Amino acid sequence: MSHANATLTPLTRLRLAQLVVDAGWTYAAAATMFMVHPRTAKKWADCYREHGRPGMADRSSRPRCSATKTPSDVVRRIVRLRWRHRLGPVQIAGRLGVPASTVHAVLTRCRINRLSHIDRVTGEPLRRYEHDHPGSLIHVDVTKPSGVRQHLRRGRLALRRTPTRREERS
């Protein structure tokens, strides 16, 4: 989709190209009318000749292929080293023989570029929940205070104090 200040939207590109191709206008005359460069008028006229009306639509600027893309097996090895050994980009780069900047780019793309984004116990990425308005989710942190264990007895929760090391020795 064209941005709000675009000189040529798909409809005006079509009008420009039809003036050049169908009505026989010169590139310079059509470009002057639409306030663009004659080279731009030629580009859209050639596109209209080749593809017709569908050729005037917006297209993605994303490249069809990336010749320097990191191979998927290297990406898997980088992610595996990050999850299992909690290594940084420099250490992973040393083990795999790839540049540290490449390792950092892969980790950023996989959203595990910071160790704080990974659960320390499981090694899995942390999942964050976002809600559309405040108060739609109440967040409760449950921790075990030191010296207290939870036991389930006959369907109800009973709290029992854990003995300290000094009490265990005596």
TrEMBL record:
One Pfam assignment: HTH_28
InterPro entries per UniProt: Homeodomain-like_sf, InsJ-like_HTH
Region feature Disordered, mapped onto this chain: 148-170
Biased composition range(s): Basic residues: 150-163
Positions of the Insertion element IS150 protein InsJ-like helix-turn-helix domain: 13-64
Name of the featured protein: Insertion element IS150 protein InsJ-like helix-turn-helix domain-containing protein
